[in-house]
Amino acid sequence: xxxxxxxxxxxxxxxxxxxxxxxxxxxxxxxxxxxxxxxxxxxxxxxxxxxxxxxxxxxxxxxxxxxxxxxxxxxxxxxxxxxxxxxxxxxxxxxxxxxxxxxxxxxxxxxxxxxxxxxxxxxxxxxxxxxxxxxxxxxxxxxxxxxxxxxxxxxxxxxxxxxxxxxxxxxxxxxxxxxxxxxxxxxxxxxxxxxxxxxxxxxxxxxxxxxxxxxxxxx
Amino acid sequence: xxxxxxxxxxxxxxxxxxxxxxxxxxxxxxxxxxxxxxxxxxxxxxxxxxxxxxxxxxxxxxxxxxxxxxxxxxxxxxxxxxxxxxxxxxxxxxxxxxxxxxxxxxxxxxxxxxxxxxxxxxxxxxxxxxxxxxxxxxxxxxxxxxxxxxxxxxxxxxxxxxxxxxxxxxxxxxxxxxxxxxxxxxxxxxxxxxxxxxxxxxxxxxxxxxxxxxxxxxxxxxxxxxxxxxxxxxxxxxxxxxxxxxxxxxxxxxxxxxxxxxxxxxxxxxxxxxxxxxxxxxxxxxxxxxxxxxxxxxxxxxxxxxxxxxxxxxxxxxxxxxxxxxxxx
Amino acid sequence: xxxxxxxxxxxxxxxxxxxxxxxxxxxxxxxxxxxxxxxxxxxxxxxxxxxxxxxxxxxxxxxxxxxxxxxxxxxxxxxxxxxxxxxxxxxxxxxxxxxxxxxxxxxxxxxxxxxxxxxxxxxxxxxxxxxxxxxxxxxxxxxxxxxxxxxxxxxxxxxxxxxxxxxxxxxxxxxxxxxxxxxxxxxxxxxxxxxxxxxxx
Lengths: 219, 329, 201
Known about the structure:
By secondary structure, chain B is mostly helical. Chain B is 61% helix and 0% strand.
């Protein structure tokens, strides 16, 4: 009789679930606390992500000076985001496009979020297009990991300002000899691949969403 | 007992000491590090003359900076390790000259100085001095400054229109070919009146100096043979498949740092394999890497990285190619 | 248990004599990856300090309940929880920094330093000792990261904390803020530490 009870007790003590009671309890407590943290901070993180893009929209559409003037006068652009779907040969591609309107509902322009392969890693950028969908109004690099000192100059204001007022109707061309031309973009010396990558992303984006924007404008 | 004592007594008493050492037993007393380094310096002479002729003061300044900086860092680093100073074996001078000849003439003074300090300090002395280094010291120094000062060492840095040196007003042959498909004339490449790193422009000078090293057996012939034959085969293949229309092989052979690197950098006896078979593997591997980098990467030239990569493979190649002793199955 | 170090000893040991990076060679991943600037290095040091302190305290509190063959699971669970909290807090309040650090914050979970301290100290000693051990080790880790980041950022960009210090004529050694610079700097500094140690004895 004693033998069977001690055997039973031993089997009870060796039960996997019972041994792991501490792990299970801790997992439960930690899980609840993590859920709490996520509930408290999740909205803020989401807001950060959106804010990062939204903050740059007026600057990319209007240019830095005009955007500052606008915010000083207490006005703001109404920004609405929409997804533009583009049919490719074998797959569909989605672009997030922000439509910026003045207070009187006049269209200020569009900003498209786009990305593509750079020299080191993916480059993510915002490209602004004017209300007529004819000219590029600005460029902002959201994320890049290009070589410091060379490729990361794509974030420099001086280089980005080349893109302002370039036509959105014909593809941009990267040149190395500083030659002038309506669609010419001067390459960063020593970082041709990064320069070509940025122009490639812009050309692709503009040609993909251009038709949709033109048709929206007419409506 | 007494007999043994007698024998050992005899041994101690006589003047003939018996050395027990592994083969090879024949050794050439005159073949010292110093003689070898002097040979390399003589071999480098045509390149130095040619670089001074083409690049004038740019070459002189760069050579003086690199040689002085290499000797100074050799002195300081060896002192730090409290070892006897080894300046008189000329190895630091050789490193300095090779380094200077592999840099663009337009590179600012601090590039040469830093490259020399890294070459001698991190490339050589840290590993235990000459003979212990894994990588070719001059190439370690050059790789460091190449990445550190990309804008002072990249393709565009070679061009300096205001220096009064004709050659410097144009792009280097390999860059011109890679970016705009312009092939420099083979004769220009052979004589060396083109732009490039100081010592690499003249194929003729490289062949002359390299030939001397091979004749003196300071450099083994297997490595240059391996690199050159691989480059010829691969560039001929690329020529036929890419439709470059002939001349591509000679352009690849005479352009850039290929001949300079083949004779003076890849043949470094410390960082290349020991056995003839190993040397062939080393040469073929380096040649293949050079062509891969030249044809497919963002860099116009790949000799430096190819040699460094093969240096890293050298211990492994040495292990693969241990010769079998005769009579062992 | 009698020969376990006291709280004060634990605290002092962590800073220099048993420095996590220079003496124990632990936590090499963040040491190499995020020391290209003082700002990311210090953010990393603070995150590690937070995780280490919390993990040590929790482990020390439950040390009586630990089963030997399940202890690693418990350690990992605890560490992962606090790392996730640190990651979320950074994303909410220091968004740009959390983007810069990228995967290296979640990777604190596999930082051997923390699991080592849980195993060596916190699972055997009381809460106070475990906490002082965590603080000492964190200071040591922070100092090590700062020393490497200082060399790399100064040589690589001519400034510290993003503020220019050296004259503008300084040619940036770009290689120092790239991965090779991390290995070179760590190797040279380790050599210096060993050299000093040899001279002292």
